[in-house]
Design goal:
Helix content: 25-40%
Strand order of the largest sheet: 3-6-2-1-9-11-12-10
Structural class: alpha/beta
CATH topology of the largest domain: Carbamate kinase
CATH class of the largest domain: Alpha Beta
Order of helices and strands: EHEHHEHEEHEEEHEEHHEEEEHEEH
Strand content: 15-25%
Number of strands: 16
Number of helices: 10
Radius of gyration: 21 Å
Shape: globular
Distance between the termini: 42 Å
CATH superfamily of the largest domain: Acetylglutamate kinase-like
Largest sheet: 8 strands, mixed
CATH architecture of the largest domain: 3-Layer(aba) Sandwich
């Protein structure tokens, strides 16, 4: 049987009903594959833990920067431990052998850069042992241990990185990233209702999207996927629609997606975009029409990013999408 890795984000695990949806998703995959699951903390757990640490600092008239970084990582890591244990309890109750493992039990080793650690190596022996014994293996994302066995965390979106890194180490057939979005779109479908879902996108294009603020994938996980040629598939936890596959394959050159970052930066992403003057001219026309003054333009072979001096309204994003993609 092939090994696959499934990663579930916090919105997919937010309550017990959603945990059951996730459990059924895992069970369906486990019928034909050995399954390793990576989990984030439930819902807003990480944000709540950060806020609680800040409240402690305020109590003794200290600043956020004075919070002990090591202890903060110990606190933040508890969210994923709760998710993995609860999901494993549920799967076992449903009749499927499952075991939850913390990063230190697996052997996910990182440097000592608390709150933004980098994975240095993964010991796959424990994972393979549990898989061979017929278990669904559930691992805490977002965290590891350093050379002194201190708990570290990988930064925002770090569970994506954990998933692709483990898929690399296990030589998994695929790495599925599940969230409440069923793929990569030509723009944020919550902001641009007529945005289309992409069937395929290259690692390079996906990295450009992630680095410009698209929240579907963490940019570091895309880097790892590209370096070790791990197919990444983004799908929704809450439907069975086909998602988007991220690989080396370039389906075609041209514009793939448009993303708005912060309030004044819009990026158009697609391989070979820098060689098409018409793309930039259309953006400039729309900017002029909406009386937007440009502060800076950054162009690479996969991206045109424009920073405006004013706040860019959502209708401008819609105009640019329709002019360039429809």
């Amino acid at each position: 049987m092939d090994t696959i890795v499934l990663k579930f984000g916090g919105s997919s695990l937010a309550d017990n009903e959603k945990l059951k949806i996730v459990a059924n998703k895992i069970i369906n995959r486990a019928k034909e594959n050995k399954v390793v699951v990576i989990v984030s903390a439930q819902g807003k757990t990480t944000d709540n833990l950060i806020n609680q640490s800040k409240e402690l600092a305020e109590m003794v008239e200290k600043t956020d920067s004075q919070i002990n970084k090591r202890e903060l990582d110990v606190l933040l890591s508890s969210g994923e431990q709760m998710s993995s244990a609860k999901l494993s309890i549920l799967l076992n109750l449903m009749g499927y052998k499952s075991i939850s493992l913390n990063a230190w039990q697996v052997g996910i080793y990182t440097n000592s850069n608390y709150q933004n650690a980098l994975i240095e190596k993964i010991d796959k022996k424990r994972i393979n042992k549990e898989l061979e014994n017929g278990y669904i293996v559930i691992i805490t994302g977002f965290q590891g241990i350093d050379k002194n066995n201190n708990i570290t965390t990988l930064g925002r979106g770090g569970s994506d990185t954990t998933a692709v890194a483990i898929a690399t180490e296990l030589k998994a057939k695929q790495c599925y990233i599940y969230s409440d979005v069923d793929g990569i779109y030509t723009a944020d479908p919550n902001k641009v209702p007529n945005a289309d879902k992409l069937k395929n996108i290259s690692y390079e294009e996906m990295y450009a999207l992630s680095s410009e603020g698209a929240k579907v994938l963490h940019d570091r996980c895309v880097e790892i996927g590209e370096r070790f040629d791990v197919p990444i598939i983004t799908e929704s936890t809450f439907n069975n629609k086909p998602g988007t596959q991220i690989t080396h394959k370039l389906e075609c050159s041209g514009i793939k997606s448009i993303v708005k970052k912060d309030v004044s930066r819009i990026s158009v992403v697609g391989f070979g975009i820098s060689s098409n003057d018409d793309t930039l001219n259309k953006i400039l026309e729309i900017a002029d029409k909406n009386s937007l003054e440009i502060f800076n333009i950054d162009i690479s072979r996969t991206k045109i990013s424009i920073v405006f001096k004013e706040i860019v309204k959502e209708n401008v994003l819609q105009e640019i999408h329709d002019a360039l993609i429809l």
